[in-house]
Write a structure and sequence with these properties.
Blueprint lengths: L3 E2 L6 H5 L8 H5 L13 H4 L6 E5 L6 H10 L2 E4 L5 H4 L9 H12 L3 E8 L23 H26 L5 E6 L16 H6 L2 H13 L5 E6 L7 H14 L6 E4 L2 E3 L5 H12 L4 E10 L12 H7 L1 H18 L4 E6 L8 H8 L20 H6 L1 E2 L1 H13 L6 H19 L3 H20 L5 H18 L1
Parallel strand pairs: 2-3, 2-10, 3-4, 4-5, 5-6, 6-7, 7-9, 8-9, 9-10
Antiparallel strand pairs: 1-11
Length: 474
Amino acid sequence: MLKVLRVTAVTGLALSLLLPAGTGVASAEEGYESKSALEVTPLKQRYEDSFPIGAAVEPYQLEGIHGEVLKRHYNSIVAENVMKPINIQPEEGNFNFEEADKIVQFAKENDMDLRFHTLVWHSQVPEWFFLDEEGNPMVDETDPEQRERNKEILLERLETHIKTIVTRYKDEVDAWDVVNETIDPYASNDRGLRESKWYQITGTDYIKKAFETTRKYAAEDAKLFINDYNTEVEPKRNYLYDLVKDLLDQGVPIDGVGHQAHIQIGWPSIEDTRESINMFAGLGLDNHITELDVSLYGWPPTPAFADYDEILASGRLLDQAERYDQLFELYEELGDKISNVTFWGIADDHTWLDDRAEDYNNGVGKDAPFVFDPDFNVKPAYWAMMDYNLNEMRTLIGNFEQEGEFENYGAARSLQAQLDSVIHFDGRENTEKAIFHMEKFIQKLESERGNEMITANAYNILKQNSEYLVRKWQ
């Protein structure tokens, strides 16, 4: 069945993207209004029967417009940086919980799920973890006895780090990213294990110790995750699968796999994503989408748009919207195997992908991976996620008529009649004729606007959603 975007509001941003690439932004947006994220239906409401919708945050984003958007649209939260080892324990025995506490308190006050990211990682971890008692790098040690002693020291430090954090937040955290990014398909070993300092000194024992310690001190109903990126594609997903299966066979208490989902408009495929979720679910594990963002670029991210105006004029955000539509259709299909979907940010004003774009484009580059733009207005991706059926669009016309946005009942009824033709052919899965009659609907809508029979607000909403559908079906 064909779907129509939820039609409770409109964004001029989306409509501007319906124009050909290269069309000027000013002319594309003329006569249209953007719609604030604070004025539209919450994302979390749309998916309340499937999974929480989360966002990664920095503490400064808990206030002002960021905080308001967070509270309206998201019911799960995770720290982008301040809970990583280098921020929590920058020096041995010196724990800094001030910034992390702010996020924990925000989640508690707003009845949000809380994910902890991350207890163990090869990056953003202070160097003192890997120095021996004399201050020498453990990885340089060649004496077998001292290497074994170093391994014991490192695992003891790891246990203390985890115990201290988990004990503090035991009653607040719903899901723990226990170990992050253990797999490197280009590593020299035949298991695809990342040869981090953790691995060089302890083998895989650091993973076991991390999960066992977290399980010992975490709340009984808290879930423990191993988290990684590119989990959708071979050979990485197979290396991760083999590692997790081996750990489970050893009795290591892993509850789920976190799929970061730092993805692109055209990669990875939906089928690869489905297969990955099903693979790990087959081990009896839960799945979280932990760091979702959809980059406008392939790899490497070149050439990049210089600014957001260029993005608007490119039409690329419509492709992104289709990608989000496909993704969330899949996530809902696999809803019994996915219990959380978290974006790696709130809106396009703050994303690590901007830094990546700049790094690969001589310091100039902008990405736009989320469903809200830099000014916190909804993008086409928002509408794609909030899909409703054509009957809802018909009902909306009736609502507009009751609210006085049509000059008379006849104008509203005429549009409903034309939309009925679309619904008729949609029901028969005749896409070609459904598109033909939707184009007729758009023509009638233009005529009613030209005759001043419909307000600009109602016209904008119906036009934007109708054109999006035609473009999508084609």
